[in-house]
Amino acid sequence: MIFRNQLPKEILLVALQHLVRLLTAQSVVVHSYAAAAIEKLFMVKDQQGKALIHKEDVLPVAESLLVNLFAALALPGSSENEYVMKGIMRSMSLMQEAAVPYVPRIIPRLKQILLVVAKNPSKPHFNHYLFESLSLSIRITCKASPEAIGSFEEALFPPFQEILQQDVQEFIPYVFQILSLLLEKHKGNIPEAYMALYPHLLVPVLWERPGNIPALVRLLQAFIEKGADSVAAADKLSGLLGVFQKLIASKTNDHEGFYLMSSIIRHIRPESIDAYLKQIFLVLFQRLTSSKTAKYIKGLLVFFSLVAWKRGGDTLIQVVDSIQSRMFGMVLERLYIAEVQKVSGATERRICAVGMIQLLTACTAVFRGEYAQFWPQLLQALIGLFELPIDETVADDEHFIEIEDTPGYQTAYSQLVFAGKPDQDPFEGAIPDAKIYLAAQLQKLSAQQPGQVASMISSGLQHDAAKYLQLYLQTAGVTLA
How many angstroms separate the CA atoms of 254 and 245, rounded? Predict the structure, then answer.
């Protein structure tokens, strides 16, 4: 039981006024405790688990709260006081758009602090809350005024450039995350200042530091999503594919390689990557042969399914079979049918489902061609993906896999909560319900092949799966010819 959670809201708000005043105390102990207490008060929840104190409650003291918090950082012994900086972060998080009027005064102060601490980073928690506060300033301001992004770039690019040039390793992952946040909020073409940075992101030394990798991948994804044609032009794509190959070879970072390649498949024009597709798949199959893990197979299935959705199942089959004749049969039998139940994550499972629906209903080779023998089993696996729990079993030999050694000290990756990337719908609203989509696609296929779909279902599908499928058809209001 936490004492502050037992106090009524009225008492906490009275206490807040006194705590704001105590932030001005010269004693490091007093203003540190005051800042810590304010941060804790803003985290108190009511009986429903929601915030007890709201931004409307704080508005009467908002200005003095922020002024006194920043003033506390100027007091002797508190220039890098993590309790005060955390208080700034939490106050802005609570106030949200109510903090926007104060941002023009907040950003110069945060910038000034950043320039000082970048010379000798020594307080990890303070530094993290500093970058979180910068992220919050950008997020809440640009939500209200998207055009304000230019003022943030004008203020932050000089210190960011200095951090990158001076190779301040502790701060580089933070800089990349905030650059991603800024770039993701841009409308239209990527500004030239970002494109000038792009070639430097592919320099191998940056990718040798594990702490950089997640932030670098996200930044490259932002480049791809916001400027696919610019990235595909002038041979920029080959450097990106080199990064992908390095990531896929690593058991630790292969998922980042899949994130990167998924962005390429989703956003770059097919004609720009067609020449590379076979080589991409060769790299993927080489890794599968040399070092198969459950995590890698999950990523591979999601990627194959995304290709089936974006480029069509026939393209997926053609590329796989160009590597080895009838190889796609092994992909169906040993990967999709045998392993898809192990895929975790709502979005990842949804991508797999839609990819499997494409293979089942839009690929002649799977429905009545050389891979038709797998059609009922693939449908069975798809219904299992919808209805059965995730298979969390791990192969016995995987317990003995060695994690790559990382020699020497490496800066760990610290994700910024308030610079987080929002979830994206890979289907952009086109498929709100994969079960209904399956029913509609089966009905469309059965209209083209009267009697055949129903026959294959009745002869090849297990009883429980057939009942589930009938429910999908009823819910969608369709019947099979």
Answer: 9
Per-residue pLDDT tens digits for 433-471: 999 999 999 999 999 999 999 999 999 999 999 999 999
Q: How far apart are the first and last CA of the chain?
A: 63
* Average pLDDT of span 370-387: 97
Whole-angstrom distance, CA of residue 295 vs CA of residue 279:
22
Distance CA 340, CA 344 (A): 9
- Contact (Cβ atoms closer than 8 angstroms) between residue 132 and residue 177: no
* Token pair recorded at residue 106: 């907040």
Residue 223, burial from CB neighbour count under 10 angstroms (0-12, 13-18, 19+): buried
Burial class (CB in 10 A: 0-12, 13-18, 19+), 436: middle
Interval 198-203 mean pLDDT: 93
Q: CA–CA distance from 59 to each of 93, 295, 319, 376 (Å)?
A: 13, 48, 60, 62
- In angstroms, rounded to a whole number, what is the distance separating the alpha carbons of residues 136 and 475? 43
Phi, psi of 393 (to 5 degrees): -70, 145
pLDDT at 387: 97
Beta bridge partners of 45: 51
pLDDT in tens, 214-257: 999 999 999 999 999 888 875 678 899 999 999 999 999 999 99
- Answer yes or no: are the C-beta atoms of 427 and 305 closer than 8 Å: no
40/4 Cα distance (integer angstroms) = 9
Environment class of 191 (CB within 10 Å of its CB; exposed 0-12, middle 13-18, buried 19+): middle
- Assign 45 to helix, strand or coil: strand
Give DSSP secondary structure letters for 133-193.
HHHHHHHHHHHH-GGGHHHHHHHHHHHHHHHHHTT-TTTHHHHHHHHHHHHHT--SSPPHH
Q: Which residues pair with 51 in a beta bridge?
A: 45
Tokens 């990337």 sit at which residue?
A: 421
Residue 77 to residue 85: CA distance in whole angstroms: 14
Q: Which residue has the tokens 């991508």?
A: 351
Q: For residue 32, how far is the Cα from the chain centroid?
A: 35
Q: Which pair of tokens denotes residue 100? A: 């926007």
Judge contact between 63 and 17, C-beta under 8 A. no
